[in-house]
């Protein structure tokens, strides 16, 4: 998004400048800005260029995203698409195999973003096609789903 904004701003400045004077001698003042501008490389189908890559592009890793690298960037799956195998093409999340859920968990397409004992008051829903705690259960500090009444009182 920032890249797109930069393009529009630079294009607007250049257009305004060229309209203000027919053939300006100093039009090359803009070249340093344009020289530093590089469009991202093209990405395969169902992928987009990201400046910061995550470690959650495969079906197995979905829902456990951590930013892995902001130094180089690269192509990554678009939202709700994952790789069935590492390095494979990005496919719709509906093609991912359902994971085996742990005790007191159930597989759902959507569920609460905040399902831990310390964050359960948050009412945001996410759709990650993953295992969520069963109704009446929350994740403890170890990530296990426990009855709400077993959560520490704050």
From TrEMBL:
CDD domains: TIL (cd19941). The keyword Signal applies. GO terms for molecular function: peptidase inhibitor activity. The keyword Signal applies. Keywords: Disulfide bond, Protease inhibitor, Signal. Gene3D superfamilies: Laminin. It comes from the Eukaryota. This is TIL domain-containing protein. Residues 1-20 form the signal peptide. Residues 101-151 form the TIL domain. It holds the Pfam family TIL.
